[in-house]
Amino acid sequence: MPPIERPAVLTQSPPSAETQGRKADHLRICLEQNVQSQLTNGLERYRFTHCCLPELDRDQIDLSTTFLGKALAAPLLISSMTGGTEQARLINQRLAQTAQRYGLAMGVGSQRVAVENPDLSPTFAVRSCAPDILLLANLGAVQLNYRYGQAQCQRIVDWLEADALILHLNPLQECVQASGDTQFKGLLQKIEQLCRALPVPVIAKEVGNGISASMAQRLIDAGISALDVAGAGGTSWARVESERAPDEKQRRLGNTFADWGIPTADCITEVRAIAPHIPLIASGGLRDGLEIAKTLALGADLAGLAMPFLRAASESEAALAALTDVLIAEMVTVLFCTGTANLRELRDSQVLQRIP
């Protein structure tokens, strides 16, 4: 097999040092500061109906599923987080090893920094330690309006040996970020062109402010293969950017909009109402297996977690294993105590009720 080409540097690309510094700041702030939204993810409004006699063998509960044609042992996505620094390299390797061990999906952080500086590409390189996982490349969608195109997207997919490409949508973060990329005009058409040209599925993902039903429909019409709603209720990237803001104006913007967005639960139900069959990832403030199970019962196909995995990965491989074990045990317990043997039954049996 010939060596995979590393992403080429864009001509007149912005300095990678600035992007790399931003990556390091994001990682540090997320690990050291309280940057959670004060909004809830909305899942507290739902409760499972308990089954006192499951008529099941707990050891035979089946969490397996498929997503974009790839088999998974559990409906878990280690959400896109980081890359571009030495600390990020170690974290990504630990996350990938965990995904391989447990049969999970994984997304890497934005690979823009690797396009700007191919020497940083190894900080994303995880396929060698996770040959079988569903692996997702990642780039900010707005970069399509800043000289990026099919060639750059194809190269980061090829280099990562990714199964799909995430285009993340982050208009609020770009507004709060000093010198953010805010030229979003005409972007939907470029996304549509990329979806037609790229040979792998393209996933549209928010970064913590949610995807509405109307916007989901426009993205689906443009050719998006899957959606990650990434609703409000978890990490607030407006708050993250306010922590690293260079002046009072940007700090105030971040604080004003720290709790902006559509709660995750609302995103799932609204998107499912208009798109019953689109592959759907629920993320945004999920913290345990009970919340994961709620999103699946509401109609999501996968549940994505970032901050819990990030904190565990920054600690040790053992901490990651312990976290994953308990998440799986919590999901199995939900299925067992609702009398549902697998994920299809969980979704179809209407065991999740909205609290009056």
CATH level 1 class label? Alpha Beta
CATH architecture assignment name: Alpha-Beta Barrel
- Please tell me what the overall shape is: globular
Extract low-pLDDT stretches.
1-15
Q: What name goes with the CATH superfamily?
A: Aldolase class I
- Please describe the biggest sheet, giving its number of strands, its sense, and whether it closes into a barrel: 8 strands, parallel, barrel
CATH-assigned fold name: TIM Barrel
Radius of gyration: 19 Å
Helix and strand content put the structural class at alpha/beta
Helix tally equals 14
The first-to-last residue Cα distance is 59 Å
Mean pLDDT: 92
Give a structural overview.
GO terms for molecular function: FMN binding; isopentenyl-diphosphate delta-isomerase activity; magnesium ion binding; NADPH binding; oxidoreductase activity. InterPro entries: Aldolase_TIM, FMN-dep_DH, IPdP_isomerase. This is Isopentenyl-diphosphate delta-isomerase. The protein is α/β, with parallel strands linked by helices. The protein has one domain: Aldolase class I (TIM Barrel), CATH 3.20.20. The protein has 14 helices and twelve strands. The strands form three sheets. It has an eight-stranded parallel barrel with strand order 4-5-6-7-8-9-10-11, surrounded by six helices. Helix 2 packs parallel to helix 13, helix 11 packs across helix 13 and helix 12 packs antiparallel against helix 13. The protein is globular and about 60 Å long.
